[in-house]
């Protein structure tokens, strides 16, 4: 598990950045089961306690519907790596309007996994805002120049597998979870690590 000092060190870095820019985009990158969501929530709460306005997005809220992301013409891992996410929408309709501060509020289309559809939510910006984006593959070429500060949560595959086996019961039993990760998630993750070297490229690494 990460140490509390990691969160405070990240917070100090953000404090320095926000003195220079009005809008700071922070990425919390890591592979499946690394603990990204927990860290992002704790960071958001720490910022709020210190009166720093912040928004928290999950990259999994910006995915294509099942008909697109489960394409039988490709291997499972290729679908996950290449066609899972709506990067164009995320950058053009979310990140760019936030950075430009054209409006005080922004309507954002998020994925509803229960209905395999989308719904609109409204987010509000202030003069000084920190936007936290939590999710996998955040250091890909498609997202280059999106983030002002990148965190990578580096956890071995074996530990992450143990975590998802106790967490991802929506997939099925233990055998089904292992099969899903071995066929879809882990090969794509290994490709990402090899291609993008996220533990080297990040500004801050949590072991």
Largest sheet: 5 strands, parallel
- H/E topology pattern: HEHEHHHEEEEHHHE
Distance between the termini: 8 Å
**CATH level 3 topology:** Rossmann fold
Low-confidence stretches: none
Q: Determine the strand fraction and express it as a percent band.
A: 15-25%
Just name the CATH architecture.
3-Layer(aba) Sandwich
Question: What characteristic shape results from the CA principal axes?
Answer: globular
CATH homology superfamily: P-loop containing nucleotide triphosphate hydrolases
Structure description:
With 207 residues, the protein is of the alpha/beta class. It has one domain (4-84, 129-206): P-loop containing nucleotide triphosphate hydrolases (Rossmann fold). It has helices at residues 4-18, 36-49, 66-69, 76-82, 87-100, 157-165, 174-196, 198-201; strands spanning 23-30, 54-58, 105-112, 117-124, 129-135, 149-153, 204-206. The strands form two sheets. It has a five-stranded parallel beta sheet with strand order 2-5-1-6-7, sandwiched between helices. The chain has a two-stranded antiparallel ribbon with strand order 3-4. A hairpin with a 4-residue loop joins strand 3 (105-112) and strand 4. Helix 6 packs antiparallel against helix 7. The longest helix is centred in the C-terminal third of the chain and has 23 residues, at 174-196. The protein is globular. The chain starts with a helix and ends with a strand.
């Amino acid at each position: 598990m990460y140490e509390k000092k990691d969160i405070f060190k990240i917070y100090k870095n953000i404090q320095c950045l926000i003195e220079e820019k009005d809008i700071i985009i922070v990425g919390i990158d890591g592979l499946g089961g690394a603990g990204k969501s927990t860290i992002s929530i704790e960071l958001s709460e720490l910022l709020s306690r210190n009166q720093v306005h912040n928004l928290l997005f999950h990259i999994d809220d910006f995915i294509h519907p099942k008909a697109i992301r489960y394409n039988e013409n490709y291997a499972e891992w290729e679908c996950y790596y290449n066609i899972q996410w709506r990067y164009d929408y995320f950058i053009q309709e979310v990140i760019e309007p936030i950075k430009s501060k054209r409006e005080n509020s922004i309507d954002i289309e998020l994925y509803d996994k229960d209905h395999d559809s989308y719904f609109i939510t409204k987010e509000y910006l202030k003069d000084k805002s920190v936007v936290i984006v939590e999710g996998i593959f955040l250091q890909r070429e498609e997202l280059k120049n999106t983030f002002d500060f990148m965190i990578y949560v580096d956890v071995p595959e074996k530990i992450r597998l143990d975590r998802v086996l106790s967490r991802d019961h929506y997939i099925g039993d233990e055998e089904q979870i292992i099969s899903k990760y071995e066929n879809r998630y882990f090969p794509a993750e290994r490709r990402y690590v090899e291609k993008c070297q996220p533990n080297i490229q990040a500004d801050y690494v949590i072991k």
